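Can you make up a protein sequence with its C-alpha cells?

===
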Amino acid sequence: MINQTDIADLILKRLVNESTKLSSMFAQSQSSIGYFYLDELLPVELANTLYNAFPHSTEMVLKKSWRENKYIAAQMDQYNPLLEATIYAFQDPRVVSQISKICTIESLYPDHHLYNGGISLMQQGQYLNPHLDNSHDKDRQKWRALNLLYYTTPDWQLSNGGNLELWPNGVKQSPTVIHSKFNRLVVMATHNNSWHSVSPLHDTLVNRTCVSNYYFSDSPIKTSDRFHVTSFRGRPEQPLLDLILRADIKLRTAIRWFFKKGIIKNKHIYKK
C-alpha cells in the first residue's frame, strides 16, 4: 500500500517540475492575496482512491451557523489511513521547503496538530462565508502563513458551486473564483487582508471533499498584520447578516484579549 513518503514524493515532483510557473503565479498575486494552484497533483487512480476513502458525513463533525455550514474532521486515526497519510505528506520537510521557495516565505512550519486542518466535506446547500482565518496557531506562538487546499471530488464542475472565492478588494467587491477542481492543489497566503470563502453548493448530489493543511511562520507575512480571531462577514447580498457578523467579530476579539486561548477550547485538533 502506498505510504506517506510515497505520496510526498509524488507531490514534491509536481511542485519541482512546475516551480517556475507556480512562483510567477504567486508573485503576481502577492500584492493582494498571494496564491497559486497546481492541477493533476497526484496520479488519477490515487486521487480517486482518496476520494472514496472519505468517511460518510455522519462520521464527521457538522459545523453549522450563520458563518458556515460544513462537515469537518481532524481526529484522523478514526478514518481510512490513506487520508492521514495524504495530509501528512504535505507536511514532509521536502514539500514544505519547496513551497517555501515558491512563495519566498522563510521559516515555514507544518501543523502536526491539524489546528483547523484535516478533511472537510460539503453537500448541497452548504457554504463558508467570507472570513479571515485566525492569525495564529493553537498556542499563539506562530503566525498562520499559508493555507493548503487539495480538492478530491472527481469531475467537479464550476457550476456546482463550492468553489474557493478570494476577495482581494474586500467583501463588498466581486471575488476571484478558483474552481475547486478535482486533483487540484491551491496554496493561498493568510494575513489580515486574505478574505476568502466557499460559494454555496447547488445542483449536485455529490459531496465536495477537501484535504487541508496550514503552515505557520515565526513572523507575519505582512508587517502590518495584527492578531485577530477567525472573522466572518456577510456576502455582498447579505447586508443585515454582515452587520451581525461584524458585531460578532468585535465581541469575540474583546473576549480573546482577556482569555488568550478563548473561553471554549477548540476541539478541531488531532489528539494523537
